[in-house]
Write a structure and sequence with these properties.
Blueprint: E1 2-8, H1 17-20, E2 23-29, E3 44-48, H2 49-55, E4 65-66, H3 77-89, E5 101-104, H4 107-118, E6 124-128
Parallel strand pairs: 5-6
Antiparallel strand pairs: 1-2, 1-4, 3-6
Length: 135
């Protein structure tokens, strides 16, 4: 199965990241789930300072690697979605304040987003991975 990922091949502190492009969106072959694993369709993933710390070498990881972003939690939709909507409607769950932007899954956009994290103009950005896995 084919998928796309944000891939870092070498650490880079050269900025601006929008110009130096330390990461690239690449198409990869994804093996079938192994024993104890499941395949999850990803609608979005976060791009945040934990990713930046791998790109700039503050956190050492084996390379090349796909940046993992932030995948969170587990949900029982019939129970949780109505609850979350109720909290949001009551002004108690301001999800629009939890990220500073949505980023297209394309090399140039991801690198510009890393630069925004590095210069402090973004806190957490959501990678739009719509269409990542075929239906």
């Amino acid at each position: 199965m084919r998928t796309r990922a944000v891939v870092l091949r070498e650490v880079s502190t050269a900025r601006p990241y929008g110009a130096t492009r330390p990461v690239a969106v690449e198409e990869l072959e994804l093996g079938a789930p192994r024993e104890g694993e499941v395949l999850v369709r990803t609608a979005a993933a976060g791009l945040c300072h934990s990713d930046l710390s791998v790109v700039n070498g503050d956190r050492v990881r084996p390379l090349p690697m796909a940046l993992l972003g932030s995948y969170m939690g587990d949900a029982v939709p019939s129970r949780d979605i109505p609850r979350f909507l109720g909290l949001w409607r009551a002004g108690l769950l301001p999800v629009e304040e939890l990220h500073t932007g949505t980023v297209q899954l394309a090399t140039e956009h991801v690198n510009r987003s890393l630069e925004a994290l590095a210069d402090g103009t973004a806190i957490r950005q959501v990678l739009d991975t719509s269409g990542l896995l075929a239906a």
